[in-house]
Write a structure and sequence with these properties.
Elements (H helix, E strand, L loop, with lengths): L4 H22 L14 E6 L4 H9 L8 H5 L2 E5 L19 E6 L2 E7 L4 H18 L16
Parallel strand pairs: 1-2
Antiparallel strand pairs: 1-3, 3-4
Length: 151
């Protein structure tokens, strides 16, 4: 039995698409970065008009994504007056802002309530990350350097 060139071409494209989708699901397609729904995140609980949120935004937000901490646990903002995002529905909400929760694969590894200033923030975050690293294997090397605190 002979298959027409059109059907053969369609079958080849369909097979390639299925293989690509399967590879993306497994995260094995080289050169394609697939964000993991299970990556660590630093969840920031905030609200409009929060004075300490604004200070955090001035002092930490510009440098956080450039740090090892930011690479390990990217920042995710959650407004306390909106419904909790569905993928975070398992965690307890927050009333105080700003508050920060380090989460990974459906588990919370610590929480900072309020913003105690740059030095305390980095120290408390380092403790939470150490707890995460003690529990989860395969995370990157320990945090060593970070931008010096301002002022």
């Amino acid at each position: 039995m002979t298959v027409s060139p059109v059907i053969s071409s369609w079958m080849t494209c369909r097979a390639a698409a299925l293989l690509l989708a399967f590879g993306l699901t497994l995260g094995v397609v080289p050169g394609l970065a697939v964000p993991s729904a299970r990556a660590a995140e630093l969840v920031m609980f905030e609200q409009a008009g929060c004075h300490w949120c604004e200070i955090w935004d001035e002092q930490i937000a510009p440098i956080y994504p450039k740090t090892e901490e930011g690479a390990l646990a990217p920042l995710r903002r959650v407004d306390i007056h909106k419904p909790m995002p569905e993928d975070l529905s398992w965690m307890r909400g927050e009333r105080f802002t700003p508050s920060f929760a380090l989460v990974h694969e459906g588990k919370e590894y610590g929480r900072i309530r309020g913003y105690p200033g740059e030095d305390f923030f980095w120290g408390l975050l380092a403790q939470m990350i150490a707890k995460l690293r003690d529990t989860v294997s395969g995370l990157e090397a320990p945090v060593e350097g970070r931008p010096a605190p301002a002022g």
